[in-house]
Amino acid sequence: MSLDQMKCVPCRGGVPILTDAEIDLYYQQLQRWSVVEKNGIKRLERSFQFEDFAEALAFTNKVGEIAEKEGHHPDILTEWGKVTVTWWTHKIKGLHKNDFIMAAKTDTLSQTKKCL
């Protein structure tokens, strides 16, 4: 099953972060995302380009809707014509399979919006 078709599982902490090998495996489905490290925590990050602020804001709201539905929330920076989405699991301070699932769902949203 592709990542965008999966559902997030509740993560209550105490779960190990993904290994580099696991990250590489899931990353094969998310080539447009970057694995970045901020404050010693690995995260998935991608910026999406739009024609104007209104389109960027509409995309931000759609990402928020899927985040609420799945119970997993990203950092989102909305700017004129650009949205940067960053996924990681706060409770384990690193990457979990849920982050890859949500990144894939975000990619699916970008295909239905006026993403440049």
Question: Could you characterize what this model shows?
Answer:
The protein is α+β, with helices and mostly antiparallel strands and 116 residues long. It has a domain at 41-116: Transcriptional coactivator/pterin dehydratase (Gyrase A, domain 2), CATH 3.30.1360. It contains three helices and four strands; from the N terminus they run αββαββα. It has helices at residues 20-27, 53-70, 97-112, and strands at residues 34-38, 41-49, 75-79, 82-87. A four-stranded antiparallel sheet has the order 1-2-4-3, covered by helices on one side. Strand 3 and strand 4 form a beta hairpin. Helix 2 (53-70) runs antiparallel to helix 3. The chain is globular, with a radius of gyration of 14 Å. The protein starts with 19 loop residues before the first helix and ends with a helix.
What secondary-structure arrangement, pairings included, does this model have?
Blueprint: H1 20-27, E1 34-38, E2 41-49, H2 53-70, E3 75-79, E4 82-87, H3 97-112
Antiparallel strand pairs: 1-2, 2-4, 3-4
Helix pairs in contact: 2-3
